[in-house]
């Protein structure tokens, strides 16, 4: 065979081989599937605390110290009760601080009796025996032209305090109502009034 023919055959064989290789298809490149997007966990609902509007109700206390007006009102009541008990005229009153009770001296004619009453001044708890008035005492009581209750009300308007006692007495040759009022600091104020018209003559500290 001639060398040129042999060369042609070799070229043909090589071409066929290359053609066979060209029919082979390469495997597509493997691609990773995208990972699913990570979802964030659902946020837990936030609880908002609403400030409580409930407030403790303030209940007014009914206790506590008695006001001067309360004791003084009870004194006036005690006088009225004592006068009705004996059908007479009250000429003196005393408050017993130990027992918070009242003693009212009542005049009936030329005699006086002492009426004991409870704290409210509404109930009589006892009556002492009658005593005869001497001339001087009778003259002092006869000079009064206003009642004991009227004298107390004038004194209460003149000075603060809780009634301790009150009576008709001779003060420096003057017949007067003497009203003693207890103070919060344990002192005492005395109010002197004319027995004829209730004019305030003097207000003084009685230490």
TrEMBL record:
Q: May I ask which residue range the UniProt record assigns to the signal sequence?
A: 1-19
| Residues of the PepSY domain | 146-203
InterPro entries on file: PepSY
A Pfam family (short name) is PepSY
Listed PROSITE patterns? PROKAR_LIPOPROTEIN (PS51257)
Region Disordered, annotated ranges: 21-73
The Low complexity compositionally biased stretches are: 21-67
Gene3D superfamilies for the chain: 3.10.450.40
Instruction: Provide the alphabetized UniProt keywords.
Output: Signal
Protein name as catalogued: Putative membrane protein YkoI
Q: Which organism is it from?
A: Naumannella halotolerans
Lineage of the source organism?
Bacteria, Bacillati, Actinomycetota, Actinomycetes, Propionibacteriales
């Amino acid at each position: 065979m001639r060398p040129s023919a042999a060369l042609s055959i070799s070229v043909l064989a090589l071409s066929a081989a290359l053609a066979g290789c060209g029919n082979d298809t390469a495997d597509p490149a493997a691609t990773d599937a995208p990972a699913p997007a990570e979802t964030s966990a659902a946020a837990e609902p936030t609880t908002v605390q609403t400030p409580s509007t409930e407030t403790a109700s303030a209940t007014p206390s009914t206790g506590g110290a008695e006001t001067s007006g309360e004791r003084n009102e009870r004194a006036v009541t005690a006088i009225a009760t004592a006068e009705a008990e004996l059908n007479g005229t009250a000429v003196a009153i005393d408050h017993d601080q130990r027992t918070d009770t009242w003693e009212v001296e009542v005049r009936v004619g030329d005699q006086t009796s002492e009426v004991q009453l409870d704290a409210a001044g509404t109930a009589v708890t006892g009556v002492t025996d009658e005593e005869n008035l001497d001339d001087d005492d009778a003259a002092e009581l006869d000079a009064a032209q206003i009642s004991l209750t009227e004298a107390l009300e004038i004194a209460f308007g003149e000075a603060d305090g809780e009634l301790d006692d009150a009576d008709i007495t001779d003060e420096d040759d003057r017949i007067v109502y003497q009203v003693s009022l207890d103070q919060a600091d344990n002192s005492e104020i005395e109010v002197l009034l004319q027995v004829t018209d209730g004019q305030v003559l003097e207000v003084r500290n009685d230490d």
